[in-house]
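CO-FOLDING WORKSHEET

Operator: S.A.
Ligand of interest: NAP
Run index: 328
Mode: holo prediction, single chain
Checklist:
[x] sequence pasted
[x] SMILES validated
[ ] output reviewed
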Amino acid sequence: MRLLVTGATGFIGRTLVLRALRDERVAEVIAPVRSEDKLRAQLQREGAGSAPKLTIVEAEAPHWDFRHVGPVDRVVHCAGVLFGRSRDEYFRVNVDGTLRLLASLSGHPDAVVLSSQSAGGPTPEGHHAKKLDHPDRPISWYGESKLHMERAVREAGHGRVRFLRAPMVLGPGDQATLPLFRMVRGKLWTKPGRELKHFSWISSGDLADAIDVWFERGGALDVAHVTSPGTITDADLMLTAGKVSGRRGKLVSIPQILLKPVAFASKFIPAIGKSVPSLTADRAREIWPNRWVIDPDPFHEATGWRGRATLEDTLARTLAWFQCEGLV
Ligand SMILES: NC(=O)c1ccc[n+]([C@@H]2O[C@H](COP(=O)([O-])OP(=O)(O)OC[C@H]3O[C@@H](n4cnc5c(N)ncnc54)[C@H](OP(=O)(O)O)[C@@H]3O)[C@@H](O)[C@H]2O)c1
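OUTPUT RECEIVED:
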């Protein structure tokens, strides 16, 4: 099988490429990336430096053209903008990039495209979980771009394409959790708002399994929520990160209103955006709602698959990865 994975230098793409390189069913892994050197250095550090079945193509979205790559059997599209500085940046890469990618592939591949629960928005008031048949109400440019991308791809009729609306993904290689592990080394652990925030989540390992299962026995489902077991809170995240780090601290709630000026400043003061990339003014809108829980049952019913990872094991492996990389 010839598999094309975009975003191989990112958190999720990295997980999928490392797996595919070990997967005997995969004869060739094609990885379009912006920098071949970055991917090679990363694979070297991961102990996967010699990878004879890996083909690296240098290309940047949305200016993608993969006609020269030849027919591919499967595509997992992970490249995307998560913390952009403008609405246009999200749409150019997440919408136009995806359309260009799918239009330029030959061989009628099966494709799984990483969308996000942000495309649907937070859990509607009065419900335990957001279901796929609830109306989609994204509240960020990021979420809007993902929803628009799903609709534009369907409209363009690019063959067999499935959209995975992932919740928060956790696991080794996830740079977004680095500030969490750094924070729990101190004594005061700050969380936004007094009320607990409830989230669905998925480990990167469960996500990779779900994608594989979807290709193998996905049935007619073309959009899905996938999760690891259970719902977590922002406090669970901090306490578990503290536990696996062997640290103790005091949870302190900071009024959400204080985050707003910082989030807006991050747009204009690059140092803030660099140290807290997830606090762009756009993504900060997603901090305010208290419930981001999704319903994974339709995926379970269609495929028989359920996630298995635990939060503690996932964060322990994430911390081990940061320690190996010398980041904490
Ligand atoms: N992480 C999560 O919690 C989460 C949750 C739900 C959905 N998702 C979705 O899952 C996908 C992967 O997320 P991730 O966490 O792996 O993100 P990530 O670590 O930020 O990686 C993003 C990847 O996209 C690439 N990329 C960005 N702009 C590009 C462009 N213009 N041209 C080519 N490549 C570009 C990056 O390449 P460079 O290395 O060159 O920058 C990187 O490889 C995204 O579509 C995201 O929306 C993620």
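REVIEW:
The longest helix spans residues 87-104.
The two ends are 38 Å apart (CA to CA).
[x] output reviewed
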